Amino acid sequence: MTNKYELHVYWSEPDQAFIAEVPDLPGCKADGATYEQAVTNAQHIIEEWIETATLLGRRVPAPTVTSRRRQLI
To answer: Taking the CB of the first residue and of the last residue of the chain, which one, N or C, has fewer CB atoms within 10 A?
Structure first.
């Protein structure tokens, strides 16, 4: 499944891992040893978050639409 939720990915020194947070979905986070692994794990967690919210009858927020692009160097 492809989704269009924004991810914030950063290195966590205390966790010694990359963290991927999904601002539109409260509490939705994933980690990984690499940037790519954190993003891949986040994709799975997003699907599980949406599935769980749906099963519980909770509202699933639509992805926030942003027109900006960021590039990390």
So the answer is: C
Domains, in order of start, for the chain: 8-55 (3.30.160.250)
pTM over 0.70? The answer is yes
How many angstroms separate the CA atoms of 54 and 43, rounded?
17
| C-alpha dihedral sign at 9, 34, 41, 1 | positive
Q: Are 43 and 25 in contact (CB under 8 A)?
A: no
The secondary structure of 20-54 as a DSSP string is EE-TTSTT-EEEESSHHHHHHHHHHHHHHHHHHHH
How high does pLDDT run on average in the chain? 91
